[in-house]
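Incident log, structure service

09:12 report received: a user says their structure output differs between two submissions of the same chain.
09:20 pulled the input from the user's history:
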Amino acid sequence: MESKPKPTAAVPSGVMARGDEVALAYRTAGELLQALASRRISSRELADGAISRIEALDQKINAVVVRDFDRARAAADDADAALARGEHRPLLGLPMQAEVRHQQL
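09:34 re-ran on a clean worker, output below:
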C-alpha cells in the first residue's frame, strides 16, 4: 500500500512555500487561513497551486469533471481584494472543490 507524504509542521512565521503545491496541499485550512491573513501567501497563489495539482493528477483519477479555472482565479483575485480591504469571512480566500454526485435510477 502506498503511503501519503506526512504533512509538515505548522507554517513558520513569515514563511510559506510558494510554488510548492504539494506542500500546500497538506497544510490545514487553519494554517492556510493564517498565512492568508498575515499575507505570507495570496489566495491567487493558493488557487494556482491547487489548479497545478489538479492538472498534474486528475488525468489518472478523473475527480474534477468541470474545470472552471478562469472563474476560480477571478474568485481568488476578488478574495485577495477583500482581504486587502480588511474584510473577514469564514474560509475567505481558501480554494475549495465541491463534490457533486449523480444517482442514476
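09:41 both user submissions now match this output. Likely a transient worker issue. Closing.
09:42 reviewer note: The CA atoms of residues 65 and 100 lie 9 Å apart. The longest helix spans residues 43-61.
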